[in-house]
Amino acid sequence: MTIIDATHYLDQLLNPAELERIAKSVGFCQRLRCITPVALVSALLSGLGCDEVDGIAGLHRHFNGLQLDESQQVAYKPFHNQLRKEAFPLFMQRLVERAIALRFKFSIAENSMLSHFREVLLHDGSSFALHPQLAGPFPGRFKTICPAAVECHMTMSLLDQYPLRMSISADTEPERKYLPAAETMCNSLLLADAGYVDRGYFAKVDQAGGFYLVRGLRSLNPVVVTAYRGNGKALKRLEGKSIKEINRRTCQDEVLDMDVSSGKYHYRLVRRWFPEEKRFCLWMTNLPREQWSAEQVMGLYRCRWQVELLFKELKSHNRLKAFATRQAALATGLIWSSLLSLLVKRRLARTLVGKQVISMLKVAKNAAIWLAPILEAKLHGARSDMRMRLESAKAYLTKNTIKTQQRKDIENITLEGIINVLSS
Fold first, then answer.
1. Which pLDDT score, from 0 to 100, does residue 109 have?
2. CA 242, chain centre distance (Å)
3. Residue 422: band (very low, low, confident or very high) from pLDDT cuts 50, 70, 90
């Protein structure tokens, strides 16, 4: 059944007529020439997703290498002109949205406390430098080192291990405005780092019936309303004090679980002392204490690291930073193309392997072995050949990408270890 599902997915995503319709609707192409939408998208997926190219010229050679007929090969200039069109990023963005709509519903936490949420969303941003001549549309925060830089704002599903939305902006734009809309957060949980602390936004999430767990800023100094030790014992003597008044001299408890007040905002604050680093860490949340202990809250926050791993995969194994171009449309279009290649790899791997726990890093690093032959057969319309290659990919992924138990699993540091604890 998995082979049929994978074939159906590729038929939907890479349907030539549908790609042509989308390309025409956004103004990317009006007439079909040698560089058809399906041929271009297949080349981008294969080239960017399989570590095959190192620049625009490499993409051009890769495109020509996929053509069966020499007459279908094109010169570098018309290929480059196609990519530098203003509509190129919009075309690729539409395909990303289409790929997200076709995501595979696969929960890694079916029997854990996380399964009670409609969605567990991880949100973060990652920036990288562009060609200095793009400083106009994409000014960087560090003008001396990186005069031009872009930031990708990503929201991904922890339960599906799949991106749900991405926005591209200049590196200087505020990050908080790219958070998921508060009114959409009903029965959903948001995990984010300290750069997204916004008490007004958190209050709206709470009003919408949603939940948040965010790393607190060191500058936070609310007043304690109620305080408890990590074991749940109340600490009446801390009530009415500000957080900064409660230091290692006045309180020796390593873990404090508090209800705090900061002006009109009220929330739960968990604080832990790390003796090795001699510092406190804070976590802001509205998760109910009756269901989520302080230890569970701190353990749950470790799951946020999955979005960092996704950015690493996007940059290291989908060629996100390999192109130095002076064309803004080309640069943003290739960013969307890189994300599309990541989506296709994750979706196909999940479909082929099923419910077995696989390493997305292994899936991404070895895509040249299993993904490129599938895309080539799909482009050429070789149905029987594509089925054979899908079966080969399934056997390869099952044997070579399954996660093996490590010492970190036993210590509950990995994602699977954390979920196992939440399931017990």
1. 65
2. 36
3. confident
DSSP assignments along 206-219, one per residue: HHTT-EEEEEPPTT
Alpha helices in 303-366, H assignment, sequence order: 305-317, 328-353, 360-365
Instruction: Report the alpha-carbon distance of residue 4 to residue 79 in Å, rounded.
Output: 34
pLDDT (tens digit per residue) in 189-236: 999 999 999 999 999 999 999 999 999 999 999 999 999 998 889 999
Q: Where are the beta strands (DSSP E) in 130-205?
A: 149-157, 162-170, 188-192
**Nearest C-alpha neighbor of 124 from the set 332, 303, 367:** 303
Contact 72, 379 (CB under 8 A): no
Task: Reduce the DSSP state of residue 229 to 3 states and report it.
Answer: strand
Of 123, 100, 152, 42, give the one whose Cα is nearest residue 305.
Answer: 123
Residue 412 has pLDDT above 70, yes or no: no
For residues 6 and 352, is the Cβ–Cβ distance under 8 A? yes
Distances (CA, A) of 50 to 57, 206, 306, 410: 16, 42, 21, 33
Q: Which residue has the tokens 């005069």?
A: 147
Length of the chain: 424
Cα–Cα distances (Å) from 56 to 53, 152, 195, 205, 306, in that order, read 8, 21, 34, 43, 30
Report which of 194, 164, 187 is spatially closest to residue 114, judged by C-alpha positions.
187
Pairing state of beta strands 162-170 and 149-157? Answer: antiparallel
pLDDT band of residue 111 (cuts 50, 70, 90) is low
- Residues sharing a CB contact under 8 Å with residue 252, sequence separation 6 or more, in sequence order: none
Q: Answer whether 144's CB lies under 8 Å from 164's CB.
A: no
Rg over CA atoms, the chain: 24
Token match 């981008």: residue? Answer: 44
Bridge-partner residues for 150, per DSSP? 128, 170
Between the two ends of the chain, the Cα-to-Cα distance in Å is 32
Q: H or E stretch including 283?
A: strand 279-285
Instruction: Count H helices and E strands in the chain, helices first.
Output: 15, 9
